[in-house]
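Hello again, I could really use a second opinion on something today. I've been puzzling over a protein and I'd love to understand its fold better. I'm sending you its amino acid sequence along with the backbone structure tokens. It would help a lot if you went through both lines with me. I've dropped the whole record in just underneath, so have a look.
***
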Amino acid sequence: MARIAGVDLPRHKQARIALTYIFGIGNPRALRILTTANVDPVKKVQDLGEDEVNRIRQVIESEGNVEGDLRKQIQMDIKRLMDIGSYRGLRHRRGLPVRGQRTHTNARTRKGPRRGTVANKKKAAAKT
């Protein structure tokens, strides 16, 4: 099993698909990495030689910003927005949609599950 950038790549998938398991690498970037490393994108990971894996690893390291470093950078960007008090930072802080989506309905992914009505709410005391 090939291990690149701290991620075990699936053995039975094509190299271009397997590289997308690394955070920060999508289809276009995976193809660019493989062409730069002179590796056939359709070749299965289990058929890759050690030298090919090392070339892929070197290209990814030279481009930078994958996995932990990229996650850290994204978190720092969000923290910066929150610290300067921008509108986007406030939306992040409150856990609401950041990019202009409606919140009257929907937005359940950001807001979480609905808070139900309070059960067994006491009614006003009757006059005696």
Remarks:
- The chain has a mean pLDDT of 90.
- The chain is about 45% helix and 5% strand.
- Residues 93 and 102 are 17 Å apart (CA to CA).
- The first strand starts at residue 3 and ends at 4.
